[in-house]
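Predict the holo structure. Ligand: phosphoenolpyruvate.
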Amino acid sequence: MSDPATPAPGWPFWVGTSWKMNGLPDDARSYAERIAAVDDWHGVLPFVMPPFTVLADVARLLRDSPVQVGGQNMHWDECGSWTGEISAPMLRQCGATMVELGHSERRRHFGETDQTVNLKVHAALRHGLTPLVCIGETQAERDGGVADLILARQVRLALHGLTAAHVGRVMFAYEPVWAIGEAGRPAPPELVAQAAAGIRQELDRAAGAPGVSPPLLYGGSVNLENAAPYAALAGIDGLFVGRAAWTAEGYAALARAAARPPCRGP
Ligand code: PEP
């Protein structure tokens, strides 16, 4: 039997979405109003990550709902000469409680590195934001047999310098680069389970004990058909979704599909 004070693995279960560079003010407000009206999230912990330009509006509309709001990136400094950047205090003031860091599109197109992700993780925690760190291997890295090494490296460097207590306040999303976006192919659940087991070892090591390490979400071409099989994987604590959750109805339907009974045992 598990200790009743220790949550069962895989529970609570997160279902979140990043809108990426989508969402003009009217559409964003309409999306937020629709999900604010959802009266039963079936026990999942919902979160949305809209673009900065609508974040404050979305957060205001969701203030009395269980849906948390996060930014899609931020700078590690509080303020200063960083043209075009957004800081953790700015996100907090807009109503964000979370921030996505290290998405593969930011690593690939905008020079994000494991080192800058680490600086941002520290800054997020300093300012009371929950960092959601995205990690994942490319197809070439998987073909070359180094996927597990790459994932372990990304985890270790993201958590570098944190105390064990702080490690438990970070969230991770395993997002194979080859599984994401328009050209993505959904990862086979067995592959996700195997990668998640390796990532979990790293997280447990950093947290200093099994059972208290960060939640690990899966992301990459999640849709209504495959949400339940991914959600059923023992090592996965949530789903992080792009395209399939870009309508309020799509997002709510995914949350329903992923919902699991709260008393699910280990
Ligand atoms: C993503 O880009 O993080 C993602 C999960 O996208 P999609 O669901 O559209 O593959």
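The pocket of phosphoenolpyruvate is lined by residues 18, 103, 175, 180-181, 184, 219-222, 240-244 (CB under 6 Å). Residues 106 and 177 are 12 Å apart (CA to CA).
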